[in-house]
Amino acid sequence: MKKLTLLTVVLLTTMLMGVNAQEKFWNFSVAPWGALSITADTVIDGMTIRASSAKTIALDASSKTIDGITFSRRLKFGGTGTLTERNISFAVQGPCSIVIYGCS
């Protein structure tokens, strides 16, 4: 089984009538993503990263360019997760599109 690493998450939230569209772009290459090993639940810029000392999530170097976007770091899960450990979540306000750039 391949393990997933995330390069970025783009959250596009559009209110019901297409008005007041909001975009949120989490690029793990750009601050405030400073911790190299996440070992406890952490909220950074509205994204919750769920981890524990037994199921850590790493932020490490990985140079990639996808769709003209250059990445220098990735969020590396390093194994399976559960609903309470080794996952990410974020709140949405209504219908939305979520784009995730990842690699295995």
Report on this structure.
With 104 residues, this protein is mostly beta strands. Helix content is 0%, strand content 51%. The strands form two sheets. Strands 1, 2, 3, 6, 7 and 9 form a six-stranded antiparallel sheet that branches. A three-stranded antiparallel sheet has the order 4-5-8, with no helix packed on it. 13% of the residues are buried.
Protein topology:
Layout: E1 5-13, E2 22-27, E3 37-38, E4 42-44, E5 47-50, E6 57-66, E7 69-76, E8 87-89, E9 96-103
Antiparallel strand pairs: 1-2, 1-7, 1-9, 3-6, 4-5, 5-8, 6-7
Total count of helical runs of at least 4 residues: 0
Give me the secondary-structure category: mainly beta
Residues in β-strands, percent? over 45%
In percent, how helical is the residue content? under 10%
How are helices and strands ordered from N to C?
EEEEEEEEE
N→C terminal distance: 10 Å
Shape from CA axes? Answer: globular
Ranges where pLDDT stays below 50 over 5 or more residues in a row are: 13-17
Task: Give the overall pLDDT as a whole number.
Answer: 78
Sheet with most strands: 6 strands, antiparallel
Q: How many DSSP-defined strands? A: 9
Radius of gyration over C-alpha positions, nearest whole angstrom: 14 Å
